[in-house]
Specification:
With about 270 residues, the chain is an alpha+beta fold. The chain folds into two domains: about 5-145, Fructose-1,6-Bisphosphatase, Chain A, domain 1, CATH 3.30.540; about 155-265, 3-Layer(aba) Sandwich (D-Maltodextrin-Binding Protein, domain 2). It has helices spanning about 5-25, 45-60, 90-95, 170-180, 195-200, 215-230, 250-265, and strands at about 30-35, 40-45, 65-70, 70-75, 80-90, 100-110, 115-125, 130-135, 140, 145, 160, 185-190, 210, 230-235, 245-250. Helix 1 packs antiparallel against helix 2 and helix 5 (about 195-200) packs parallel to helix 6 (about 215-230). The chain is globular, with a radius of gyration of 17 Å. It starts with a helix and ends with a helix.
């Protein structure tokens, strides 16, 4: 399988970081600060987990770059960058909802989702113990078992997941789109962890996922996992996934859902 060494490192570090995050959750969590809005929070566990990841990756591959949610970007000389969300789903983590993740991807090129090429990825849910992985050209896995996107269904039978922005005005606009989409699909899920939303598309637990305003670390790993499982993962039109928009689904369903979302003003 291509990129085995990168995948092995991503998997090992994700599991180690996940164990730390789970210990901190079991001990009790407090908000350390807020970022873009009062509901966009960071905990000390986020910071500690990212430090662990950053140190472990630097020790193993000192020439690589790093791009993390909590500590920013640092350029490398190898042409590879590790894109990390130490605790994706921080609000779930804060409230004790067992649906959060450590997300680690390594990409080739500039750390920009519009141009990078993801090579390997690992997403672990420390609460459930589930580990999703993928390599470019090597397929996607849940544990040791390969996963595939669910077969195409009519839009009316699609279980669709999404998420909302931290900005209250943007959330209102997103809620308007959801209210119009809801009668057209089987149902909507809003689970609060973008990396796992993408992994759930990959393994067929949901049929589709879309969202606006994601940061690169939110989707770097999950997008590769979903793509390697057979999903189309895209932005609007011919664009790559980015902060502007991301959609993941079986290719046939993705086309239908995108048309409907555009019509609804996504």
């Amino acid at each position: 399988m291509p990129h085995d060494d990168l995948l092995d490192l991503a998997r090992r570090v994700a599991l180690e970081a996940g164990a730390l995050a789970k210990r901190r959750r079991d001990e009790g969590v407090e908000v350390a600060a807020s970022k873009s809005s009062p509901v966009d929070i960071v905990t000390e566990a986020d910071r500690e987990t990212e430090r662990l990841i950053r140190d472990a990756l630097a020790a193993a591959r000192p020439a690589d770059g790093f791009f993390g949610e909590e500590s920013g970007a640092e350029a490398g000389t190898s042409g590879l960058t590790w894109v990390v969300d130490p605790i994706d789903g921080t609000v779930n983590f804060l409230y004790g909802i067992p649906h959060y993740a450590v997300s680690i991807a390594v990409v080739e090129g500039e750390p920009d989702p519009l141009t990078w090429r993801a090579l390997a990825a690992a997403v672990v849910n420390p609460a459930s113990g589930e580990l999703f992985t993928a390599t470019a050209g090597g397929g996607a896995f849940l544990g040791s078992e390969p996963v595939r996107v669910a077969p195409a269904v009519d839009l009316s039978q699609a279980l669709v997941s999404t998420g909302f922005a931290y900005d209250s005005g943007e959330r209102g606009r997103q809620g308007s789109v959801v209210s119009q989409l809801l009668p057209l699909v089987r149902d909507i899920r809003r689970m609060g962890t973008a990396s796992l939303d993408l992994c759930f598309v990959a393994c067929g637990r949901t049929n589709a996922y879309y969202e606006r305003t994601l940061s690169p670390w939110d989707h770097a790993a999950g997008a590769l996992i979903a793509r390697e499982a057979g999903a189309t993962v895209k932005g609007l039109g011919d664009a790559a996934p980015s902060r502007d928009f991301i959609l993941a689904a079986h290719p046939e369903l993705a086309a239908r859902l995108e048309r409907e979302l555009v019509r609804l003003g996504v």
